[in-house]
Amino acid sequence: MRSAFGQEFDVPDGYLNTAGIGIPSAAAADAVESAVRDWRTGAGRPGDFEQPVQLARAAFAGLVGFDVERVAIGSAVSELVGLVAASVPDGTRVLVASGEFTSVSWPFAAQSARGVTVTVAEPAELGERAADHDLVAVSVVQSADGRVADLDALRAARASGTRVLLDASQSLGWFDADLSWADVVVAAAYKWLLSPRGAAWMAVRPELELVPTSAGWYASADRWADIYRMPMRLAPDARSLDTSPAWYSHVGAAAALPWLAGLDRAAVHAHCVGLADRFRAALGMEPAGSAIVAVRTPEAMERLTAAGVVASGRAGAARLAFHLYNTEADSARALAALT
Protein backbone atom coordinates (compact mmCIF):
# COMPACT_ATOMS: atom_id res chain seq x y z
CA MET A 1 0.00 0.00 0.00
CA ARG A 2 1.31 3.46 -0.94
CA SER A 3 0.41 6.87 0.42
CA ALA A 4 0.13 9.76 -2.03
CA PHE A 5 -1.42 13.19 -1.55
CA GLY A 6 -3.41 12.06 1.48
CA GLN A 7 -4.82 8.81 0.05
CA GLU A 8 -3.82 5.16 0.16
CA PHE A 9 -3.30 3.17 -3.04
CA ASP A 10 -2.86 -0.57 -3.47
CA VAL A 11 -0.75 0.01 -6.57
CA PRO A 12 1.93 -2.55 -7.48
CA ASP A 13 5.58 -1.61 -7.98
CA GLY A 14 6.32 -0.74 -11.59
CA TYR A 15 2.77 0.22 -12.49
CA LEU A 16 3.15 2.92 -15.15
CA ASN A 17 -0.09 2.44 -17.05
CA THR A 18 -2.46 5.12 -15.75
CA ALA A 19 -2.92 6.32 -19.34
CA GLY A 20 -4.63 2.96 -19.87
CA ILE A 21 -6.28 2.25 -16.51
CA GLY A 22 -5.97 4.38 -13.40
CA ILE A 23 -5.66 2.71 -9.99
CA PRO A 24 -8.35 3.81 -7.50
CA SER A 25 -7.62 4.98 -4.01
CA ALA A 26 -8.53 2.54 -1.28
CA ALA A 27 -11.38 4.87 -0.32
CA ALA A 28 -12.84 4.86 -3.84
CA ALA A 29 -12.50 1.09 -4.17
CA ASP A 30 -14.11 0.58 -0.75
CA ALA A 31 -17.05 2.80 -1.73
CA VAL A 32 -17.68 0.76 -4.89
CA GLU A 33 -17.30 -2.51 -2.99
CA SER A 34 -19.86 -1.36 -0.43
CA ALA A 35 -22.35 -0.38 -3.14
CA VAL A 36 -21.90 -3.71 -4.91
CA ARG A 37 -22.43 -5.50 -1.60
CA ASP A 38 -25.73 -3.66 -1.18
CA TRP A 39 -26.71 -4.68 -4.71
CA ARG A 40 -25.79 -8.28 -3.98
CA THR A 41 -27.95 -8.38 -0.85
CA GLY A 42 -30.91 -6.42 -2.26
CA ALA A 43 -30.26 -3.40 -0.07
CA GLY A 44 -29.50 -0.93 -2.90
CA ARG A 45 -32.12 1.54 -4.12
CA PRO A 46 -32.07 3.79 -7.21
CA GLY A 47 -32.29 6.90 -5.08
CA ASP A 48 -29.08 5.95 -3.31
CA PHE A 49 -27.11 7.00 -6.38
CA GLU A 50 -28.43 10.54 -6.77
CA GLN A 51 -25.89 12.01 -4.36
CA PRO A 52 -22.81 10.27 -5.88
CA VAL A 53 -23.81 11.45 -9.37
CA GLN A 54 -24.15 15.03 -8.16
CA LEU A 55 -20.93 14.96 -6.13
CA ALA A 56 -18.93 13.72 -9.12
CA ARG A 57 -20.64 16.17 -11.47
CA ALA A 58 -19.84 19.12 -9.20
CA ALA A 59 -16.22 18.02 -8.78
CA PHE A 60 -15.78 17.69 -12.54
CA ALA A 61 -17.19 21.19 -12.95
CA GLY A 62 -14.58 22.45 -10.49
CA LEU A 63 -11.76 20.64 -12.27
CA VAL A 64 -12.58 22.19 -15.65
CA GLY A 65 -13.73 25.60 -14.41
CA PHE A 66 -17.38 25.47 -15.52
CA ASP A 67 -20.58 25.99 -13.56
CA VAL A 68 -22.07 22.68 -12.48
CA GLU A 69 -25.26 23.49 -14.41
CA ARG A 70 -23.20 23.25 -17.60
CA VAL A 71 -22.02 19.67 -17.00
CA ALA A 72 -23.70 16.62 -18.54
CA ILE A 73 -22.98 12.99 -17.70
CA GLY A 74 -22.50 10.06 -20.05
CA SER A 75 -20.74 6.72 -20.21
CA ALA A 76 -17.95 7.41 -22.72
CA VAL A 77 -16.21 10.26 -24.51
CA SER A 78 -17.36 9.15 -27.97
CA GLU A 79 -21.00 9.25 -26.82
CA LEU A 80 -20.65 12.84 -25.59
CA VAL A 81 -18.60 14.05 -28.57
CA GLY A 82 -21.27 12.38 -30.70
CA LEU A 83 -23.86 14.76 -29.27
CA VAL A 84 -21.74 17.69 -30.46
CA ALA A 85 -21.10 16.11 -33.85
CA ALA A 86 -24.78 15.39 -34.42
CA SER A 87 -25.66 19.00 -33.55
CA VAL A 88 -23.20 20.95 -35.72
CA PRO A 89 -24.70 22.53 -38.85
CA ASP A 90 -24.52 20.81 -42.22
CA GLY A 91 -21.22 21.54 -43.93
CA THR A 92 -19.30 22.22 -40.73
CA ARG A 93 -15.52 22.16 -41.24
CA VAL A 94 -13.76 20.29 -38.42
CA LEU A 95 -10.01 20.27 -37.76
CA VAL A 96 -8.38 17.44 -35.78
CA ALA A 97 -4.83 16.46 -34.90
CA SER A 98 -2.85 13.83 -36.73
CA GLY A 99 -2.92 10.65 -34.63
CA GLU A 100 -5.90 11.89 -32.62
CA PHE A 101 -7.80 9.33 -30.56
CA THR A 102 -10.74 8.22 -32.67
CA SER A 103 -13.33 8.90 -29.95
CA VAL A 104 -12.65 12.57 -30.75
CA SER A 105 -12.40 12.43 -34.55
CA TRP A 106 -14.75 9.65 -35.66
CA PRO A 107 -18.03 11.14 -34.32
CA PHE A 108 -17.50 14.05 -36.72
CA ALA A 109 -16.40 11.78 -39.57
CA ALA A 110 -19.66 9.86 -39.11
CA GLN A 111 -21.55 13.04 -40.08
CA SER A 112 -20.07 13.16 -43.61
CA ALA A 113 -23.46 12.57 -45.23
CA ARG A 114 -24.45 16.04 -43.99
CA GLY A 115 -21.40 17.61 -45.59
CA VAL A 116 -19.38 17.71 -42.36
CA THR A 117 -15.69 17.50 -43.30
CA VAL A 118 -12.79 16.47 -41.09
CA THR A 119 -9.30 17.76 -41.88
CA VAL A 120 -6.20 16.29 -40.24
CA ALA A 121 -3.20 18.48 -39.35
CA GLU A 122 -0.09 18.17 -37.25
CA PRO A 123 -0.83 19.15 -33.61
CA ALA A 124 1.55 22.12 -33.78
CA GLU A 125 -0.38 23.50 -36.78
CA LEU A 126 -3.87 23.48 -35.27
CA GLY A 127 -3.75 27.02 -33.96
CA GLU A 128 -2.58 28.60 -37.21
CA ARG A 129 -5.00 26.57 -39.35
CA ALA A 130 -8.03 26.96 -37.06
CA ALA A 131 -9.26 30.13 -38.78
CA ASP A 132 -10.11 28.10 -41.90
CA HIS A 133 -12.38 25.81 -39.90
CA ASP A 134 -15.55 26.07 -37.84
CA LEU A 135 -14.47 23.77 -35.03
CA VAL A 136 -11.24 22.27 -33.70
CA ALA A 137 -11.54 18.98 -31.79
CA VAL A 138 -8.37 17.89 -30.02
CA SER A 139 -7.05 16.11 -26.93
CA VAL A 140 -5.31 18.36 -24.41
CA VAL A 141 -2.69 15.62 -24.16
CA GLN A 142 -2.39 13.06 -26.93
CA SER A 143 -3.09 9.47 -25.92
CA ALA A 144 -0.44 7.86 -28.12
CA ASP A 145 2.63 9.82 -27.07
CA GLY A 146 1.74 12.50 -24.52
CA ARG A 147 2.14 15.53 -26.79
CA VAL A 148 0.59 18.60 -25.15
CA ALA A 149 -1.69 20.81 -27.23
CA ASP A 150 -0.83 24.49 -27.71
CA LEU A 151 -3.71 25.75 -25.60
CA ASP A 152 -2.72 29.40 -26.01
CA ALA A 153 -2.97 29.11 -29.80
CA LEU A 154 -6.31 27.32 -29.55
CA ARG A 155 -7.63 29.93 -27.14
CA ALA A 156 -6.64 32.66 -29.58
CA ALA A 157 -8.38 30.77 -32.38
CA ARG A 158 -11.54 30.60 -30.33
CA ALA A 159 -11.38 34.35 -29.71
CA SER A 160 -11.37 34.74 -33.50
CA GLY A 161 -14.55 32.70 -33.90
CA THR A 162 -13.54 29.03 -34.18
CA ARG A 163 -15.25 26.66 -31.76
CA VAL A 164 -12.92 24.48 -29.66
CA LEU A 165 -13.69 21.04 -28.22
CA LEU A 166 -11.11 19.62 -25.81
CA ASP A 167 -10.82 16.00 -24.70
CA ALA A 168 -9.15 16.11 -21.28
CA SER A 169 -9.16 12.33 -20.67
CA GLN A 170 -5.36 12.12 -20.74
CA SER A 171 -4.75 15.34 -18.83
CA LEU A 172 -7.43 16.03 -16.22
CA GLY A 173 -6.14 14.87 -12.85
CA TRP A 174 -2.48 15.78 -13.38
CA PHE A 175 -2.21 18.65 -15.88
CA ASP A 176 -2.47 22.12 -14.36
CA ALA A 177 -4.13 24.25 -17.03
CA ASP A 178 -7.13 26.53 -17.44
CA LEU A 179 -9.74 24.88 -19.68
CA SER A 180 -12.67 27.12 -18.78
CA TRP A 181 -12.39 29.13 -22.02
CA ALA A 182 -13.22 26.18 -24.31
CA ASP A 183 -16.65 25.60 -25.84
CA VAL A 184 -16.69 21.93 -24.81
CA VAL A 185 -14.54 19.89 -22.42
CA VAL A 186 -15.03 16.13 -22.17
CA ALA A 187 -13.23 13.47 -20.14
CA ALA A 188 -13.53 9.82 -19.21
CA ALA A 189 -13.35 8.64 -15.61
CA TYR A 190 -11.14 5.60 -15.71
CA LYS A 191 -7.71 6.99 -16.48
CA TRP A 192 -6.14 9.92 -14.59
CA LEU A 193 -9.38 10.56 -12.67
CA LEU A 194 -8.89 7.18 -10.96
CA SER A 195 -12.53 6.12 -11.17
CA PRO A 196 -14.32 3.07 -12.60
CA ARG A 197 -14.91 2.82 -16.32
CA GLY A 198 -18.46 3.69 -17.31
CA ALA A 199 -18.62 7.37 -16.38
CA ALA A 200 -17.74 10.42 -18.46
CA TRP A 201 -18.60 14.10 -18.30
CA MET A 202 -19.00 16.99 -20.73
CA ALA A 203 -18.91 20.67 -19.85
CA VAL A 204 -20.54 22.78 -22.55
CA ARG A 205 -21.21 26.47 -22.97
CA PRO A 206 -24.90 27.50 -23.07
CA GLU A 207 -24.56 29.25 -26.45
CA LEU A 208 -23.62 25.93 -28.07
CA GLU A 209 -27.05 24.43 -28.72
CA LEU A 210 -26.89 20.63 -28.68
CA VAL A 211 -29.67 18.21 -29.60
CA PRO A 212 -30.29 15.65 -26.79
CA THR A 213 -30.48 12.73 -29.20
CA SER A 214 -30.41 10.18 -26.37
CA ALA A 215 -32.91 11.97 -24.13
CA GLY A 216 -34.45 9.70 -21.53
CA TRP A 217 -35.75 9.81 -18.01
CA TYR A 218 -32.46 11.10 -16.58
CA ALA A 219 -32.56 14.16 -18.85
CA SER A 220 -35.92 15.21 -17.45
CA ALA A 221 -36.69 18.37 -15.52
CA ASP A 222 -38.22 16.13 -12.83
CA ARG A 223 -36.86 12.60 -13.25
CA TRP A 224 -39.20 10.67 -11.02
CA ALA A 225 -42.33 12.57 -12.05
CA ASP A 226 -41.69 12.36 -15.79
CA ILE A 227 -40.65 8.77 -16.37
CA TYR A 228 -43.97 7.92 -18.11
CA ARG A 229 -45.10 11.37 -19.22
CA MET A 230 -45.53 13.18 -22.51
CA PRO A 231 -44.90 15.77 -23.76
CA MET A 232 -41.17 15.83 -23.13
CA ARG A 233 -39.96 18.15 -20.35
CA LEU A 234 -36.19 18.41 -20.47
CA ALA A 235 -34.02 19.87 -17.72
CA PRO A 236 -33.32 23.57 -18.36
CA ASP A 237 -29.53 23.18 -18.25
CA ALA A 238 -26.90 20.72 -19.46
CA ARG A 239 -28.66 17.93 -17.56
CA SER A 240 -30.92 17.75 -20.61
CA LEU A 241 -27.99 15.95 -22.27
CA ASP A 242 -27.61 13.36 -19.50
CA THR A 243 -27.94 9.66 -20.10
CA SER A 244 -28.79 7.27 -17.30
CA PRO A 245 -25.70 6.85 -15.09
CA ALA A 246 -23.72 3.67 -14.60
CA TRP A 247 -24.39 3.70 -10.87
CA TYR A 248 -21.32 1.98 -9.48
CA SER A 249 -18.97 3.99 -11.68
CA HIS A 250 -20.35 7.20 -10.21
CA VAL A 251 -20.01 5.84 -6.67
CA GLY A 252 -16.28 5.50 -7.27
CA ALA A 253 -16.09 8.86 -9.02
CA ALA A 254 -17.86 10.55 -6.10
CA ALA A 255 -14.98 9.43 -3.88
CA ALA A 256 -12.19 10.22 -6.36
CA LEU A 257 -13.10 13.48 -8.10
CA PRO A 258 -13.81 15.71 -5.08
CA TRP A 259 -10.45 14.68 -3.63
CA LEU A 260 -8.65 15.40 -6.91
CA ALA A 261 -10.43 18.73 -7.25
CA GLY A 262 -9.21 19.75 -3.81
CA LEU A 263 -5.52 19.04 -4.40
CA ASP A 264 -2.80 21.59 -5.12
CA ARG A 265 -2.81 21.14 -8.89
CA ALA A 266 0.57 22.76 -9.36
CA ALA A 267 2.10 20.28 -6.91
CA VAL A 268 0.47 17.30 -8.64
CA HIS A 269 1.62 18.59 -12.04
CA ALA A 270 5.18 19.09 -10.78
CA HIS A 271 5.29 15.58 -9.30
CA CYS A 272 4.00 13.79 -12.40
CA VAL A 273 5.92 15.81 -15.00
CA GLY A 274 9.03 15.80 -12.85
CA LEU A 275 9.09 12.00 -12.78
CA ALA A 276 8.42 11.79 -16.52
CA ASP A 277 11.00 14.39 -17.57
CA ARG A 278 13.72 12.89 -15.37
CA PHE A 279 12.91 9.52 -16.93
CA ARG A 280 13.19 11.07 -20.39
CA ALA A 281 16.52 12.69 -19.50
CA ALA A 282 17.95 9.35 -18.37
CA LEU A 283 17.09 7.96 -21.81
CA GLY A 284 18.66 10.94 -23.59
CA MET A 285 15.30 12.46 -24.54
CA GLU A 286 14.35 16.13 -24.35
CA PRO A 287 11.88 17.25 -21.64
CA ALA A 288 8.29 17.43 -22.86
CA GLY A 289 6.26 18.75 -19.94
CA SER A 290 4.00 15.71 -20.10
CA ALA A 291 3.27 12.85 -17.70
CA ILE A 292 3.20 10.44 -20.66
CA VAL A 293 6.40 9.15 -22.26
CA ALA A 294 6.55 7.17 -25.51
CA VAL A 295 9.67 5.00 -25.82
CA ARG A 296 10.52 3.67 -29.29
CA THR A 297 13.66 1.66 -28.54
CA PRO A 298 13.64 -1.87 -29.97
CA GLU A 299 11.75 -4.44 -27.90
CA ALA A 300 10.86 -1.82 -25.31
CA MET A 301 7.54 -3.44 -24.37
CA GLU A 302 9.09 -6.88 -24.11
CA ARG A 303 11.87 -5.60 -21.83
CA LEU A 304 9.49 -3.66 -19.62
CA THR A 305 7.09 -6.58 -19.27
CA ALA A 306 9.92 -8.97 -18.40
CA ALA A 307 11.02 -6.56 -15.65
CA GLY A 308 7.53 -6.41 -14.14
CA VAL A 309 6.74 -2.94 -15.44
CA VAL A 310 3.14 -2.42 -16.56
CA ALA A 311 2.95 -0.11 -19.58
CA SER A 312 0.95 0.02 -22.83
CA GLY A 313 1.91 -0.54 -26.44
CA ARG A 314 0.57 2.36 -28.51
CA ALA A 315 1.36 3.48 -32.07
CA GLY A 316 4.54 1.39 -32.24
CA ALA A 317 5.93 2.64 -28.91
CA ALA A 318 5.91 1.66 -25.27
CA ARG A 319 3.76 4.21 -23.47
CA LEU A 320 4.56 4.92 -19.82
CA ALA A 321 2.44 7.15 -17.60
CA PHE A 322 3.53 8.77 -14.34
CA HIS A 323 0.72 9.70 -11.95
CA LEU A 324 0.59 11.04 -8.40
CA TYR A 325 1.03 7.59 -6.82
CA ASN A 326 4.18 6.80 -8.80
CA THR A 327 7.69 7.11 -7.37
CA GLU A 328 11.32 7.25 -8.43
CA ALA A 329 11.47 3.51 -7.72
CA ASP A 330 8.94 2.86 -10.49
CA SER A 331 11.02 4.98 -12.85
CA ALA A 332 14.23 3.20 -11.85
CA ARG A 333 12.71 -0.19 -12.55
CA ALA A 334 11.66 0.90 -16.04
CA LEU A 335 15.05 2.50 -16.73
CA ALA A 336 16.89 -0.64 -15.67
CA ALA A 337 14.80 -2.65 -18.13
CA LEU A 338 15.41 -0.25 -21.02
CA THR A 339 19.11 0.53 -20.47
UniProtKB/TrEMBL annotation:
Which Gene3D superfamilies does this chain map to?
Aspartate Aminotransferase, domain 1, Type I PLP-dependent aspartate aminotransferase-like (Major domain)
Give the signal peptide as a residue range, or say none if absent.
Answer: none
Q: A single Gene Ontology molecular function, please?
A: transaminase activity
A Pfam family the protein falls into:
Aminotran_5
What top-level branch of life does the organism fall under? Bacteria
The reply to whether DNA-binding figures as a keyword in the UniProt entry is no
The UniProt record lists the Aminotransferase class V domain at 51-283
Q: Which keywords accompany this UniProt record?
A: Aminotransferase, Transferase
- What protein is this chain from? Aminotransferase class V-fold PLP-dependent enzyme
